[in-house]
């Protein structure tokens, strides 16, 4: 299906999921996961109503920024970020969703100080405790949160998670629920420099479940752009 039809179908599904739990659909951000798609496809998605793009790899981000591919949308970084590439991302994106270690957080902070700006970030939580994934455990999160006040050049705007691959609807519900409970608890505890504005969870196969359970930011690639072609790449 063409990108424009996919985008309107997804917005409709977002409205339905929000309505099913009495939530205002306007509070939910659809972030298009643009990895491995061309600047032209990204432009088509923005023309079809996408207002937020999420990029995974620094090289693709840099290329598409140079091509003005994201014009008309905000840009988020959503992939694993190596500390030696932080300089190419800080100040270039509206939100780094995938801050998954204290070392990365410190490196982002240092670069934000250097550039004289405040970088918005989300903390990535490894909610299923998968060894294949990065991200903070719940224990690590709670020990970090009181320290966030010491990093005035970053601003924490919430949490992000990538739960296990979902094969059937409902499979990740317990993880979405845990993330939601975590966001409520952190909000109640009022940590300095931490504002839980975004709970980023839900992808092509499970975004409706995620919204029902409290997500207000879904990151969707395949359902917008079609299956990615991995044959020309070593990416996962
Ligand atoms: C690719 C990607 C997505 C989107 O995945 P789809 O299953 O294609 O919708 C979401 N979040 C992150 C971090 C991704 O890398």
Mean pLDDT: 96
Radius of gyration over alpha carbons?
17 Å
Strand percentage: 15-25%
CATH class: Alpha Beta
Total beta-strand segments: 8
Helix content: 25-40%
Bound molecules: pyridoxal-5'-phosphate
CATH superfamily: Alanine racemase
Number of domains: 1
Tell me the CATH architecture: Alpha-Beta Barrel
Characterization of this structure:
This protein is of the alpha/beta class and 236 residues long. It has a single domain, classed as Alpha-Beta Barrel (TIM Barrel), CATH 3.20.20.10. Helices cover 36% and strands 19% of the residues. The chain binds pyridoxal-5'-phosphate. Residues 33, 35, 56, 78-79, 162, 203-204, 219-223 line the site of pyridoxal-5'-phosphate.
How do you describe this structure in short?
It contains eight helices and eight strands; from the N terminus they run H-E-H-E-H-E-E-H-E-H-E-H-E-H-E-H. With 236 residues, it is of the alpha/beta class.
Provide keyphrases for this structure.
236 residues; alpha/beta; binds pyridoxal-5'-phosphate
Task: Note the topology.
Blueprint: H1 3-20, E1 29-33, H2 39-47, E2 52-55, H3 58-66, E3 74-77, E4 95-99, H4 102-115, E5 119-125, H5 138-144, E6 154-161, H6 173-189, E7 194-200, H7 207-212, E8 217-220, H8 222-225
Parallel strand pairs: 1-2, 1-8, 2-3, 3-4, 4-5, 5-6, 6-7
